[in-house]
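@channel sequence for tomorrow's demo:
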Amino acid sequence: MNKFFSLLKPLDIVCIAGAFGICATSIINTSQAPGTPVLHISTSETEYLYQLDQDAEIPVNGLTGTSVIRIQNGRAFFQESPCANKTCIQADPVYRNGDWAACLPNGIFIRVESEQTTSDIDITAY
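structure tokens (generated this afternoon):
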């Protein structure tokens, strides 16, 4: 291993470090969706959109009653629900692009997606 490092020239090290830097930057930039995170609340009848940067308490009518979804400090979670097992209330808050939670007995699904601020081109498949 020591012989390998003795063969490297200073410019080789700079090129290798630059390649790693370019790869890391590409991965970080493509993993972050552009735009502001938006909370989508879906029921069997309708869909609601809310900004995650504004605190709110949202009553949503579902199949078995009314669930209360709370947005607080950029995170959304089920605060109350009429379902029997209350698994949705115990779920972690959603706040990152792609996060989701659901109250299946009540038919309510929440998910976070980034609002598109640029074009609709998929950056990973150009």
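heads up for whoever presents: The chain has a mean pLDDT of 82.
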